[in-house]
């Protein structure tokens, strides 16, 4: 009887250890995949805001879906055309508006079958009445990966 009880405990412990190892291996695999996604989205974020900061309207236009929905806690819901027009107007008034990602704030999560969710904080600075004004705000970007290309399809900008 003691031998059967010992064998049962032994197999239960082995099964438990195997389950933990399998879960850990899956977690490491997911982490590696998520690191790749994180790096891709970080790179795409830098491309979008390099185009923004340099007023490269032609490049900027290619980084958003044409059915873009842009939700802003002060400005409401806008679309692709409004977003592109905003950059054109910003270039014309030349107030030196620049965007910088807050270091360490970026989070990236996969959206299976669609793309990724980027969450973070960024600081915008511009010249107003001869002096530099800055504000740090929160954002969510929904990235769609279609035909191998990443584009932002939804933006939520808040905490202004």
Describe the structure.
The protein has one domain: Nuclear Transport Factor 2, Chain: A. The chain has 160 residues and is an alpha+beta fold. Strands 1, 2, 3, 4, 5, 6 and 7 form a seven-stranded mixed β-sheet that branches.
* Termini separation: 70 Å
SSE topology string? HHEEHEEEEE
How would you classify the helix and strand content by structural class? Answer: alpha+beta
Helicity level, as a percent range? 40-55%
Entry summary:
With 160 residues, this protein is α+β, with helices and mostly antiparallel strands. Helices cover 45% and strands 39% of the residues.
Features of this protein?
160 residues, single chain, seven-stranded mixed beta sheet, 7 strands, alpha+beta, 3 helices, 39% strand, globular
Describe the protein's topology.
Blueprint: H1 2-54, H2 57-61, E1 64-72, E2 76-79, H3 80-93, E3 98-101, E4 107-111, E5 115-128, E6 131-146, E7 149-158
Parallel strand pairs: 1-7
Antiparallel strand pairs: 1-2, 3-5, 4-5, 5-6, 6-7
